[in-house]
């Protein structure tokens, strides 16, 4: 709860606005959220009113619940340092618990450490692991990996190299990987793309989401490192501005440190 200092006492609206700014809430939303709050509001009433105002002023979409089922393929993308590979380890554990028999393809062929980290997760979780040769074309690795694993596993997770959304060559490479998946000889019923984001970068996430969205369809978002940041409020802008659901929050280094995103519980943690 970032706003607990206001509970049980009188406060200045400007002070509350400043706290919203500090915690990543976009100024236009912060102004709207506090506009109708009474300076006489005390105690937990502050919390109740904040939640009420947020729900009234944020464009919350009703997305269909994600159905994690057999014959699904997940492409994991993200910029450098977004916690992508760590998330994949957690996601494999999540799928294992649902008895979906996952496997993983390491298509980050230019960073040996990423392949080693994935292989460590695969071994720890008893998950089949496929990797290409050093500096092999990532799209070729993905295509071959799917052909090898498609009859052995009901779910495939694909890691890709971290890339900046404004690097055209790397974004074109991502489109090539996506095309390799679509053209592959397989019968996966669901093909989903998840974009990982670092919660610490706050509102800068907007540019990253839009940058990736300009090149590839994004089905869901993963917000990592939510335990170590003060920009948690930026998720309000992401929720308001994009028609893309937040699916997961990652909050630690252990494979168990992953939770499904729920808006009401998010507000409980924020306020």
Description:
By secondary structure, the chain is α/β, with parallel strands linked by helices. It folds into two domains: 4-57, no CATH class; 72-262, Rossmann fold, CATH 3.40.50.300. Helices cover 42% and strands 16% of the residues. It contains ten helices and eight strands. It has an eight-stranded mixed β-sheet with strand order 3-2-4-1-5-6-7-8, sandwiched between helices. Helix 1 runs antiparallel to helix 2 (27-35) and helix 2 packs across helix 3 (44-57). The model has no long low-confidence stretch (mean pLDDT 88).
Give a nutshell description of this structure.
This protein has helices spanning 13-22, 27-35, 44-57, 84-97, 112-125, 138-149, 168-183, 205-213, 235-241, 263-270, and strands spanning 72-78, 102-106, 128-131, 155-159, 190-198, 220-224, 246-250, 258-260. With 271 residues, the protein is α/β, with parallel strands linked by helices. It has two domains: 4-57, no CATH class; 72-262, P-loop containing nucleotide triphosphate hydrolases (Rossmann fold, 3-Layer(aba) Sandwich), CATH 3.40.50.
Strand content: 15-25%
Number of structurally distinct domains: 2
CATH H-level superfamily title of the largest domain:
P-loop containing nucleotide triphosphate hydrolases
Based on DSSP secondary structure assignment, what is the total number of beta strands? 8
Pick out the low-confidence regions.
none
Question: For the largest beta sheet, what order do the strands appear in spatially?
Answer: 3-2-4-1-5-6-7-8
Shape: elongated
Helix content: 40-55%
Structural class call reads: alpha/beta
CATH architecture of the largest domain: 3-Layer(aba) Sandwich
